[in-house]
Amino acid sequence: MSEWIVRTNQLTKKLGGQRAVNNVNLEIEKGEIYGFLGPNGAGKTTTIRMLLGLMRPSSGSIHIFGQDLKEEKVNILGQVGSLVESPSYYGHLTAKENLEALRQIYGVPKSRIDEVLKIVRLSKDANRPVKGFSLGMKQRLGIAASLLGNPELLILDEPTNGLDPSGIQEIRELIKRMPEQFGISVIVSSHLLSEIDHMATKVGIITNGSLIFQDSIDVLRKKASSQISLAVDHGEKAWQSLLSQGYTADYEDGRVLLDSTDDQLVAQIVSHLAAKQFSIYRVEEQKMSLEDIFLDITKEANSL
After folding, report:
1. Do the beta carbons of residue 302 and residue 207 sit within 8 Å?
2. Which of 65, 131, 219, 249 could crosslink 91 through cysteines, CB 3.0-4.6 Å?
3. Both 259 and 162 in a single domain?
4. Domain containing residue 235: CATH number
5. Residue 176: which CATH number?
6. Average pLDDT of 227-256?
7. What contacts 58, CB < 8 A, 6 or more positions away?
8. How many whole angstroms separate alpha carbon 98 and alpha carbon 91?
9. At 36, phi and psi to the nearest 5?
């Protein structure tokens, strides 16, 4: 039986008369890296703020660690670490000094500072003023701060936003280590599916406040459809010739597109075109990328 870290039931938030979050049912298991994905303004941050008790739901419920957030807020949030938006620091203080100020609030041993700095690979920079840190280092320090209280759940809102490729790689590798090495479940939000694909075991896609997909990355990939693309001279005439013979095909940007990838059918179509004196320059299979799938799913939801 699944051990749920987070479950919401019909979670809804109205802002200015509009439903920013609309009947969202999240299901996140222990040990998962849950990629919370959606375009900017889709409702990700509003949902995360409700999970962290920073915003009250208009209706619906939130259960974290099997407890109702409304009734057990202090107990639950003591086991949750978070990084929402850009972390704030005292630039003139060192990484260690910044964490010391937070450590006293958490009431954890001083040794915990060295532990979290080691986790985020900032031990060598522990005594450097934070104002000299790169953006990626500051993000890692923010994650270190969120780990101070030994959380069971880590919630990160757009943690790679604005980072250069090396900074993105650092944060990505750090997040991937959390469940296996430290037993921490992670919710990470992003507007980029390609980013989530590198980290997440499960994906939830939200658009216009509604959760329109929730399953594993593998299930999402299976939504990809393949096409056969034919580069043919006089492409439009070739396409019309196929239609006249009852074949199903599309014509786009000078190419004839076939929805079927059946080898026998493709061979028949190629033979037909050759018999009609059309020159065929290229036959290739085109698969949708994950980003294409994401755009298709959100476009479809927006058109309903």
Report:
1. yes
2. 131
3. no
4. 3.30.70
5. 3.40.50.300
6. 91
7. 12, 13, 14
8. 9
9. -100, 110
Q: Could you give the percent of the chain with pLDDT greater than 70?
A: 95
Residue 164's pLDDT band (boundaries 50, 70, 90)? confident
Residues whose CB is less than 8 angstroms from the CB of residue 278 and which lie 6 or more positions away in sequence, other chains included: 232, 233, 234, 237, 238, 241
Question: 24 falls in which pLDDT band (50, 70, 90)?
Answer: very high
Backbone angles phi, psi at 192, to 5 degrees: -115, 115
pLDDT over threshold 80, residue 292: no
Residues sharing a CB contact under 8 Å with residue 262, sequence separation 6 or more, in sequence order = none
- Torsion of the alpha carbons at 21, 22, 25 and 30, rounded to the nearest 10: -10
- Which of 114, 113, 118 has its CA nearest to residue 102? 113
User: Pairing between strand 185-190 and 210-216?
Assistant: unpaired
CB–CB of 21/166 below 8 Å? no
Q: How far apart are the first and last CA of the chain?
A: 35
Are 28 and 159 contained in the same domain? yes
Distance between CA atoms of 189 and 48, rounded to whole angstroms? 9
Kindly list the distances between the CA atom of residue 157 and the CA atoms of 47, 81, 143, 232, 242, in Å, as whole numbers in the listed order: 10, 12, 11, 47, 50
Q: Are residues 191 and 234 in the same domain?
A: no
Tokens 């990505």: give the residue: 172
Tell me the pTM.
Answer: 0.79
Question: For residues 38 and 44, is the Cβ–Cβ distance under 8 A?
Answer: yes
Q: Do 37 and 205 contact (CB within 8 A), yes or no?
A: yes
Residue 300 included in any domain:
no
Q: Are residues 240 and 203 in the same domain?
A: no
